[in-house]
Amino acid sequence: MFITALFSLIILIVCVALMSISIILKKGGTFPSMHISNNTALKSRGIHCAATQDRMTAEKKNIYERIEIK
């Protein structure tokens, strides 16, 4: 069981090292952004993050709903 755990750990370390080679070797290398607002494919489909969609929905309300005091 120890051999299997050690072998799995070695494979994991090698995989992480191989995935980070381009980031380590490239000058100013960074991981790609995973935020929705930085994804061009989602932008072209009109998909935004939840905060942006809430703001857009709030802007579409009429003036009476905006100034109504509850």
Can you give keywords for this protein?
mainly alpha; 5 helices
Structure description:
- The protein is mostly helical and 70 residues long.
- Helices cover 61% and strands 0% of the residues.
- The chain contains five helices and no strands.
- It has helices spanning 2-19, 21-25, 40-44, 50-59, 63-67.
- It is elongated, with a radius of gyration of 23 Å.
- The relative contact order is 0.06.
- The mean pLDDT is 82.
Short description:
This protein has 70 residues and is mainly α. It is built from five helices and no strands.
- How would a textbook summarize the main sheet? none
Query: What number is the mean pLDDT?
Result: 82
| Oligomer kind | single chain
Query: How far is the first residue's CA from the last residue's CA?
Result: 65 Å
Low-pLDDT residue intervals, each spanning 5 or more residues? none
Structural class: mainly alpha
DSSP strand content: under 5%
Secondary-structure element order, N to C:
HHHHH
Q: Strand tally, please?
A: 0
